[in-house]
Each structure stands twice: as structure tokens, then as C-alpha cells.
Amino acid sequence: MTALTLTAAGCTGPKPTVAVFEVSGGEQFTIELATPELVEHAQGLLAGENLATVPSGEVVPGKSSVNEPWSWHIDPATLEFTNVTVESCDGSPQHVEDDISAFERFCPWSARVVAVEGPDA
């Protein structure tokens, strides 16, 4: 049985698999995992495997049911995990919220996976 969720238009669709991240300071944000490889990677991080840890993706302004309560989300098609990023995309979810125009990409160095949720979890 497939999990369903309501979309903004009121239609139902499949609920995506997501990774919940926490950054230093305790703030959390959520990113949709668009491929089986990303789901597997996030599950590996959750299990403590030695993998690339920093999520990096393009910031999209606008509410998303995946990343509530923030008014932005990461484009799931651009998500990748890496160990090295530029400092300009590091920060916290609140930094992005406060100055979204300053963030083309978000790659919080201190992020760690605290949950993988959804039908493929």
C-alpha cells in the first residue's frame, strides 16, 4: 500500500521518502530523496557508515510540505552528498530563511541525518 499525502491543490499523490537533518544548534530541515541511491546513502549515514556527509542542493523559495515550517526547500533533483563544499553555502536553516537571496545552494557542514522517513525508508 502506497502512503498518500495532500498536495497544495488538494489532490493526493505518493508521499516522498525524505531525510531529516539536524545542524548544530538543534535546527532541523528535511530534503526529499528522489532516487534509490540517495535513500540508500541517507540510510547509510543514519547507520553510521563512513560516507560523504554534507547534503548540498539548490535552494528553491516557496513553501513545501517536505520542509515545513521553512519557506524554502532543496530541489531534490540537485541533491548530492559531499565532503567538501564552499563556505558560502554553509549555514543553518534559519540563515537561509533570513536571507534566502544569499543562498543559491545550501550545504550545511554540521548537518547530520537523524531520520529517514517515507515509503522507501
UniProtKB/TrEMBL annotation:
One family name in Pfam for this protein: BP74_N
Organism domain of life: Bacteria
Domain BP74 N-terminal: 18-116
Cross-referenced InterPro entries: BP74_N
Name of the protein described by the UniProt record: BP74 N-terminal domain-containing protein
Organism from which the protein derives: Salinibacterium amurskyense
